[in-house]
Amino acid sequence: KQRFGESYKIGSGKGTSVFEVATILGEKLGKNIPIEITGQFRVGDIRHAVANISKAKKLLGFKPNYSVDSGLNQFAKWVETQAPSIDKYPSMEKEMKLKGVMG
User: Is 90 exceeded by the pLDDT of residue 76?
Assistant: First the structure.
């Protein structure tokens, strides 16, 4: 039976904090970046991400092929192949101030 218009959560099914992701990425990219947890969370901030994949398992037969670690390893390898980007923040900030969007 085809199922249209439904959403499925896809992920590893393992809870991972933003701190863990940042730490793992730093290690994989060979960067020693100090991570500070200030405790000053904003409404809507994500502190942990867990995909409940039970629906996808049941209806689609989904099984994760990658752990968080192996997925971040592949991501880090891809990042290393990318050319450095140009920091456009100063020009964006100037334009937003000119348009009155930013003080």
Answer: yes
| Burial class of residue 21 in the structure, from the number of CB atoms within 10 Å of its CB (0-12 exposed, 13-18 middle, 19+ buried) | middle
At residue 62, does pLDDT exceed 90?
yes
Do 74 and 46 touch, CB atoms closer than 8 A? no
Task: Give just the sign of the alpha carbon dihedral 52, 62, 9, 12.
Answer: positive
Distances (CA, A) of 3 to 7, 59, 63: 10, 9, 19
Decide: 9 and 55 in contact? Cβ < 8 Å: yes
Place of tokens 């409940």: 52
Output the pLDDT for position 2: 62
Q: Phi and psi dihedrals of 17, rounded to 5?
A: -80, 160
| Sequence-distant (≥ 6) Cβ neighbours of residue 30 within 8 angstroms | none
